[in-house]
Amino acid sequence: MSCHKYFIINQLFLLVTVVLLLLSCQNRNYVEHDEPETHELLTVTAQDYIINAEYPASIQGDQDIKIIPRVEGYLQGVYVKEGATVKAGQLLFRIDDATYRAAVESANANVQMMTAALNKSQLEYEGKKELHGKSIISDFELSLSESDLGMAKANLAAAKAALSSARNDLSYTEIRSPSNGVVGRIPYRKGDLVGPSMQDGLTVVADNRQMRVYFSMTENQVMRYISDYQTLSETIEHFPKIQLKLPNGKLYNQPGHIESISGVIDEQTGAVSVCARFDNPNGMLLSGGTGKIVLPTEISDAIVIPQESTYDIQDKVYVVKVVDGKAVSTIIQVENQNDGKNYVITSGLKVGDLIVAKGSSYIKEGTLIKTK
After folding, report:
1. Structural domain harbouring 237
2. Beta strands of 68-151 (E only): which ranges?
3. Which of 23, 201, 285, 342 is the most exposed place for a label (fewest CB within 10 A)?
4. Model confidence over 106-160: pLDDT tens digits?
């Protein structure tokens, strides 16, 4: 046999071998695809369920009072430290009062002058009144004297008002705490020029014995509570006790209660503002802090499934249903609030549906499924 013929036979043999191998692989893949996979399955049921929903919250003292000077001047003394606990009436700052003492003295002297002028006008009026009674002077002269007396009284009243104002300004050079509380940051020091135009003030005194915690709920979430009662006040009264989760993930050791629910829904966000109140006997909560309100919410006849039975693709949540023994990927809608372990289903599943309990993200569409 010639070399050329031998080469052609070898090539044909290799081609046939490759075709047979490909057919064998295709057949093996087809068989493997048709073989059912074993998975743990879950039958969907309904139950009454309580979600410990979490809402981002901001914490404020019962009173956060900015300490803004009522007069202008140079700080003469700072008598508290940042973070100090103070009582109502306690001296916090002192402004140089030399100018204001001088103003009081000047106003006091003016009062004395106006008092003397009034006494003089009073005597003149009494004299002219006597002369008028004897028909020695005319009605016009008596009226002029009476007008002078009235002007003197008005001048004295103005002088006394100016004295009172000067004394008030002098008293404002001593800046005292308007309430019990904790002193915030103090960015100013002795010698700094301060005054009423300061927007942030000298500091803030926060009354932290009780704290207000503000958070927002959606209209639907609020309506779950309101629909059970006649009025908003009754709804607030029957709200369950709530807890506060601190930034470190721990729960605050004092329970709280809902104090108010806004009667207005924000048009842009659709949210309702809610205020809760917490006791703060040990000062653990700080005004201006953050946390999360933990609010138990009961849902009747809820469809609840483990989060491990779902998977996410582009912000959509999926489960794998088993329909006629085959895998069917299904989009579901879930409540925004969850406990981190389970989802409450709002649409996409019904009671009696069969779903894959674990590992659903690795199952291909149409795969045959059998129960583990």
Report:
1. 54-61+209-299
2. 73-78, 85-86, 91-95
3. 23
4. 999 999 999 999 999 999 999 999 998 888 889 999 899 999 999 999 999 999 9
